[in-house]
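SAMPLE LOG
Freezer: B-3
Tube label: C17
Construct: single chain, 131 aa
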Amino acid sequence: MSRTYLQTCLLCMTRSVHVFKGSSGGQKQYFYISTSKSWEDAQYHCRQHHTDLAMIEDESENTAVASVLVPNQWTWIGLYRQAWRWSDGSDSQFKNWGSGEPNNYGNEHCAWEHGHKLNDASCSLKHKNSV
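STRUCTURE (predicted):
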């Protein structure tokens, strides 16, 4: 019997930490790795060392991600503005935007997580925390 193993990562922005989300036999896991990266650099890192930036596809995944995040930390996820798709190219059905978001203030085409809500941000911003 073969097992499928899939990992994706999301990046936090204020405490130099990356979080990697993986699934093995249906179980998802999250890990922190310290660094400071823009969205593009975070995506590249995740694709080189894991699979991709994390996708939060429903409320149960949002709850699972929230359980490993440091409170009040900004976290890169794999969502980007092109009809808001995930970094693997799949459509995003679940978008738990914060109040007034996405607002595209200053051409914000990537998303991060903060306080269990999504916010659009400039993809070139570099932040320290990741999940």
